Amino acid sequence: MVHQRVRLTLHIIGSILKYLALIYILPLAAAFYYSENWRIFLYSLLLTLAIGLSLEFGFRTTRVIERADGFSIVAFTWLLVPLLGAVPYVFFGWNFLNAFFEAMSGFTTTGATILERVEGLPRSVLLWRSLTQWLGGMGVIALFIAILPKLAVGGSQLFGREFPGPMPERLRPRIKTTARILWRIYVGFTAAEMALLYFLAKLNLFDSICISFCTLPTGGFTPTSGSIGAYANPLAEYIIMVFMFLAGTNFLVHYHVLRGNFKIFRDEEFRLYLILLASATLLLILSQGLGSYRYSLFQALSIMTTTGFVTCDFGSWHFGAKMVFLALMFIGGCGGSTGGAIKVVRSLTLLKHSRGMMRKAIFPKAVIPVKYNQKPLSDEIIRDIISFVFLYFLVAAAASIILGFLGLDLETSLSAVAATLGNVGPGLGGVGPALNYAWLPGAGKLLLIICMWLGRLELFTVLMIFLPRFWRG
User: Fold this and answer.
1) 159: Cβ contacts below 8 Å, ≥ 6 apart
2) Alpha helix ranges (H) inside 226-318
3) Residue 374, by phi and psi: left (phi above 0), alpha (psi -120 to 50) or beta?
4) What span, in angstroms and rounded, lies between the C-alpha atoms of 358 and 265?
5) What is the pLDDT of residues 393-445, one digit of tens each?
């Protein structure tokens, strides 16, 4: 059983890496165009292609992907892809740990960076940073399910392990068709943002492309050290706000709206999403004054959707405002969005479950089902959500304690874990929006890399592979 599962896992990962190598063509072309060092991307392409082909043909198997196989394939894909994605940075001269941190932050759409000055990078490297986030947003495996025939069989086993949030309803009976629809919406929104930033906000074409590649995946990387605030362009900020909001919304809502079904706006999660955003923005404005409305709205959207773009140093804001940001880091965007963290749908379910438990205390014999959009939720779904939230806070607490023992203060430790486990990016204290993660000790960076990996795959997919019973079948 172990041998067969390992063989299938390596074979599928090899197929994915083989095609992932082709993505290097884009930064390679940019390096040629801007007369930069193109060899780092050519070597990265050849290395990734060689490893992919070796795994694909060296571990051929006829085994069909089963439910348990999905955990190992997705978990190790999301570990090996950032490992190989770090290769261009290593060729560029970075030490391996910093390169791996930046690549993991990119593919998991976290946006935490070890770079002190982004402007010093070649444009081809900046493009690669943005591409890693764009690929990671909708999901590396979701992309290959949409285009690779061999992943059509068993694709649901992979899609369910990778797609952020509780498993969305299928838009079509075949999971491959669902993946294609989601990617079309994703590409369409990305192209629309590029056009608006370039033609309407008058940003240069390269920056428009990079920012758009990092908005829809709720990533947060930018071609400037000052993030979006460096452009001092209010119109660009409003455009980005719109697309951050769309990225943090369940993509099922976009699908139904594009098909003319506006009843989807009655969705309970979407309404709570709006209420939380409005409440957070109001609290931030009250703490900073009416003149801060644009900054408050932008930062509330950026942190709740886990995008991580910055227009001001909110780390220096009122303590109450920083608590709002910390809360948003844990809540995150909607299920079925590209946002990270716990997700609004889980928060909503727990609120409903808690209300039901309180009513049950008054009327012990009453049958009080937990409903979502007027449909009862099964006890299994509720148990899964309770288990996830418990594990999420347990991992956050354990990681924060470890960072504390490494010498970080409470604010920095807690927010660094919240920002990486929730795939947000900037935290508070020593990892605030005006700072970076470069100064952290090596053990701290490695721990936060693990947090990013766990957060992107929502804990269970990664934790399962460490159970001995999982490998015993």
Assistant:
1) 139, 141, 142, 145, 175, 178, 179
2) 234-247, 251-258, 268-288, 293-304
3) left
4) 29
5) 999 999 999 999 999 999 999 999 999 999 999 999 999 999 999 999 999 99
| Structure tokens, 401 | 């304690």
Q: Which helix (H) or strand (E) holds 316?
A: none
Residue written as tokens 């608006």? 196
Dist. CA 13–CA 70, nearest whole Å: 11
Instruction: State the pLDDT at residue 153.
Output: 46
Token pair for residue 452? 């990013």
Q: Which residues pair with 375 in a beta bridge?
A: 372
DSSP alpha helices (H): ranges in 21-122?
Answer: 25-33, 39-58, 67-85, 87-92, 96-107
pLDDT at 30: 96
Torsion angle defined by CA atoms of residues 234, 236, 240 and 243, in that order, rounded to the nearest 10 degrees: 120
| 459: DSSP letter | T
86 HSE (CA, 13 A, CB side): 21
Rounded to 10 degrees, what is the CA torsion of 184, 185, 187, 189?
Answer: 160
User: 112-137 pLDDT, tens per residue?
Assistant: 999 999 998 999 999 999 999 999 98
For residue 379, the model assigns a pLDDT of 87
Cβ–Cβ < 8 Å for 145, 180:
no
CB 400 within 8 A of CB 417: yes
What is the mean predicted confidence (pLDDT) over 304-310?
96
Enter the tokens of residue 53.
Answer: 């082909």
Angstrom distance (rounded) from CA 93 to CA 431: 24
Would you tell me the crossing angle of helices 140-147 and 175-195 to the nearest 10 degrees? 120
Collapsed DSSP state (helix, strand, coil) of residue 372: strand
